[in-house]
Write a structure and sequence with these properties.
Layout lengths: L1 H15 L1 E5 L8 E4 L4 E6 L4 E6 L6 E11 L4 E10 L3 E8 L6 E9 L6 E6 L4 E4 L9 E10 L5 E13 L11 E4 L3 E19 L5 E6 L6 E6 L5 E19 L46 E2 L6 H6 L1 E7 L7 H10 L17 E4 L8 E4 L4 E2 L6 E8 L2 E3 L5 E7 L3 E10 L2 E10 L6 E10 L4 E10 L21 E4 L4 E3 L3 E5 L5 E5 L6 H5 L9 E3 L6 E10 L4 E9 L10 H16 L11 H17 L15 E2 H13 L4 H10 L12 E3 L2 E2 L7 H16 L2 H23 L32
Antiparallel strand pairs: 1-12, 2-5, 3-4, 4-12, 5-11, 6-9, 6-12, 7-8, 7-11, 8-10, 13-14, 13-18, 14-17, 14-19, 15-16, 15-17, 20-21, 21-22, 22-23, 23-24, 23-29, 25-26, 26-27, 27-28, 28-36, 29-35, 30-31, 30-34, 31-32, 32-36, 33-35, 37-38, 38-39
Helix pairs in contact: 7-8, 7-9, 9-10
Length: about 750
């Protein structure tokens, strides 16, 4: 009884360490700060803060701001409840210091607003420095808090926020206790003896298993956080970011009958028997805590390996820290460290991978061909990656010497060539068809310079982009979720939307879930999974085609595949005809200007023409863009200079289309947006934008004398000039006639842009 009372009183200070910052029973101090073109109304709705926002078809942000005076403890957590009737957008939580210039935040991108109340917690370690002259460091004093909805998909909606709280947390410390482990007929349970944070699990099995991972704070109420179906045995990697519990349980959910590979069993993952550096050991975990071992049929684990655990097949479990895999890209980077080089794209091993864009002029979709031969089949989509199986060994990008080339040295028809002994593999890609109906085409041609031989060509469908994990703006690179792979004997369909159509029937096609073993695990044994179609709840399935190639001495053999980039593609001609047409189309666009230079400058001329091709491929209809993925937005800065290059190259039509498309996005004030994308005009002020629009129209007039187009956009020109005058007037006051500020007289005010003004230099 005394011990119970002691525990009760010890718990009292902990409860007092949670402070309510705002319960919203009275709406006081909150102000709306929307960007240009965005409406935001704040109101009290039954004791909660209500935000009604409307992006009016554009981009921007809707910010709710309130001043506070908070001294933060050494370790803390902020929480609030939220619900919404709103489309998917970004939810930002920001802390501002007393200077008003330094901002720390957490940006929850593509946040799905729950219809029912949900608590959102943010710990100190999750808050990042956003911008300001401090340049980083630890947030210690909070002078203001902001909630912001920023345009992801845009649209309009309503968000409710309630119960804003600050809790002081115990100091963070590495877990250094020995978990108590108990077993039952179908489960193993770990009691960490305290609440423990972790980011994933690595489990070694002696045989295949299907199981559920469950967590609990009290050992009574359990929550399933991961279910593994059809595990193939060996080593399992489980992605569990931001997980916290006192108890962890692995519960077997039935005998596993995973699909068997044919004709050979895939080799196990490297490192299966390696001893981890920090783990929750299943064998000699020490005595259980008083709370473990509750319930019938549960036996505490003693020193040595229990017969129950052996029967369940669980050889070892390692609990990984939070920073092991905070993102899904980091998760696959960890797996790549533990597997033979070549099992994963080099970008998942921290290596730079270069790529080139593959598409047609003015289309909204393009592919990417990586330097190692993987072909990304659309923005954010999966990749087709080639492998050879030669003399009992799987040949990947890491085993060959790869070189890259363009058709005729400059046409955007790239080829990656693998050299491996007497064999070489040419991977050639191009796109055909009109914008909105284009088809990605690829040929895989193996050449044999040695004696006659038989090999296998595998084309794997993998849940990875060519766009690497290091790319994060607009279109994050790295992984690409595959939840479904289906083969009907003619077409492989991924996620029910994208199709891969081989020109000749493969010898076999196989698909696998992540839990059943990533496809390369199977290919290393020269085999495919038996399943032709799979559904993967984790979202990282894979599959592969296989062709048996008989190569005569000096012979060649290969296969072509087509990937429609749109739901209603044009019917592509045969590969040779399509390739010839693509060459002709690009010559027509790129050869309009003759350039006469010494032969030594020929590489420069070819580079110039290739850059023109990339400009045309990257643009989405009239929207000229500096890139196809992270930079798939139309910046007026980039667009005006790019247009100047097009005009000098005899390509005036794309420039006219850009001007007519971009001009209506000008704000009513006359401000020219820094950039425009699918969400509309970006309201962030970049005061170089207005003059760049004027330059664009002026350049177009100088090269074309197209009076009709210039007259059409002339009202936008006048409004931009007037807006520049308004901005300059802010620096033409008496304040700027004083000696200390005279140097700034008549200049445009500072803006965010590339000059670093968000840091307030």
């Amino acid at each position: 009884m005394k011990s119970a009372l002691l525990l009760f009183f010890l718990a009292l200070p902990l409860a007092a360490q949670t402070r309510t910052l705002d319960d919203f029973t009275v709406l006081a101090g909150w102000t709306a700060a929307p960007s240009d073109g965005v409406r935001l109304d704040l109101s009290d709705d039954q004791g909660s803060l209500r935000l009604d926002f409307d992006f009016h078809g554009g981009a921007g942000y809707a910010v709710a701001h309130k001043a506070f005076a908070i001294d933060l403890p050494p370790n803390w957590q902020v929480s609030f409840r939220i619900r919404g009737d709103a489309p998917v957008n970004n939810l930002e939580f920001k802390l501002i210091d007393p200077s008003g210039q330094n901002v720390w935040w957490i940006n929850r991108r593509n946040f799905q607003f729950p219809h029912d109340w949900k608590e959102v917690r943010t710990r100190k370690r999750q808050i990042e420095f956003a911008w300001g002259p401090a340049g980083g460091g630890e947030m210690k004093q909070v002078a203001a808090i902001e909630f912001a909805v920023t345009a992801g998909t845009g649209g309009k909606g309503t968000v409710w926020i309630d119960d804003l709280k600050l809790a002081e947390l115990p100091p963070e410390h590495p877990y250094d206790r020995t978990p108590a482990v108990t077993t039952s007929e179908d489960a193993v349970t770990w009691d960490f003896l305290e609440s423990r944070e972790y980011g994933g699990l690595v489990i070694d099995w002696s045989h295949p298993a299907s199981y559920t991972v469950e967590i609990s704070d009290d050992g009574k109420q359990w929550t399933a956080v991961r279910e593994v179906k059809g595990g193939n045995g060996g080593r399992d990697y489980l992605y569990l970011p931001e997980t916290e519990s006192r108890y962890l349980r692995i519960r077997i959910i039935g005998a596993s009958n995973p699909p068997k590979p044919h004709p050979l069993t895939p080799s196990p993952l490297r490192g299966e028997g390696e001893k981890p550096s920090e783990s929750a050991p299943p064998a000699n975990a020490g005595p259980p805590s008083p709370r473990s071992g509750e319930g019938p049929g549960v036996r505490p684990r003693r020193a040595g390996r229990s017969e129950t655990t052996a029967a369940l097949g669980l050889r070892h479990l390692e609990v990984k820290p939070l920073d092991w895999a905070p993102t899904i890209n980091a998760f696959f980077e960890q797996i790549a460290k533990d597997t033979p080089r070549g099992s994963y794209p080099r970008s998942f091993s921290g290596e730079q991978e270069y790529w080139t864009v593959v598409g047609v002029d003015a289309d909204s979709e393009e592919g990417l061909l990586g330097e190692d031969g993987a072909l990304e089949v659309g923005q954010g989509a999966f990749s087709i990656e080639p492998f050879l199986f030669v003399d009992g060994k799987l040949i990947a990008w890491s085993d060959v010497r790869a070189s890259q080339s363009l058709a005729e040295g400059y046409l955007p028809i790239p080829t990656v060539t693998w050299a491996y002994g007497d064999l070489s593999l040419d991977i050639t890609a191009f796109a055909s068809g009109s914008p909105g109906q284009s088809v990605l085409r690829a040929r895989y041609l193996v050449h044999n310079r040695g004696k006659a031989r038989k090999i296998k060509l595998f084309l794997a469908l993998r849940p990875f982009q060519v766009n690497p994990p290091t790319q994060f703006l607009n279109q994050p690179g790295g992984t690409s979720s595959i939840r479904e792979v289906a083969w009907d004997g003619h077409t492989a369909t991924v996620n029910g939307t994208r199709s891969v159509i081989p020109s000749s029937p493969p010898a076999a096609f196989g698909a696998t879930t992540f839990d059943g073993g990533e496809i390369v695990e199977h290919l290393r044994g020269g085999a495919l999974p038996r399943a032709a179609s799979v559904n993967d709840s984790f979202g990282y399935a894979s599959g592969a085609f296989a062709w048996d190639l008989g190569l005569a001495a000096g012979g060649e053999a290969g296969v072509d595949v087509s990937v429609p980039l749109h739901p209603s593609p044009s019917s592509p001609p045969d590969f040779a005809t399509g390739l010839s047409t693509a060459r002709s189309d690009w010559h027509r666009l790129l050869d309009r200007v003759e350039i006469h230079l010494p032969p030594a400058a020929d590489p420069l001329v070819k580079t110039f023409r290739t850059v023109l091709a990339h400009i045309l491929i990257n643009r989405d209809g009239p929207a000229i863009q500096p890139g196809s993925r992270s930079y798939a937005r139309t910046w007026i800065r980039d667009g005006s200079l790019t247009s100047s290059a097009l005009l000098r190259s005899g390509l005036a039509e794309p420039v006219r289309e850009l001007i007519e498309w971009f001009a209506p996005y000008q704000f009513p004030s006359g401000k020219v947006p820094c950039c425009v994308d699918s969400r509309g005009a970006d309201p962030v002020p970049e005061n170089d934008s207005h003059g760049e629009f004027l330059f664009l129209v002026g350049e177009y007039w100088r090269y074309t004398h197209d009076r009709a187009t210039v007259e059409k956009v002339w009202p936008h020109v006048e409004k931009a000039v007037a807006y520049i005058d308004e901005l300059r007037a802010q620096r033409r006051t008496d304040e700027y006639r004083q000696p200390a500020k005279l140097r700034y007289f008549g200049l445009l005010p500072e803006s965010i842009s590339h000059e670093g003004y968000s840091s307030h230099p």
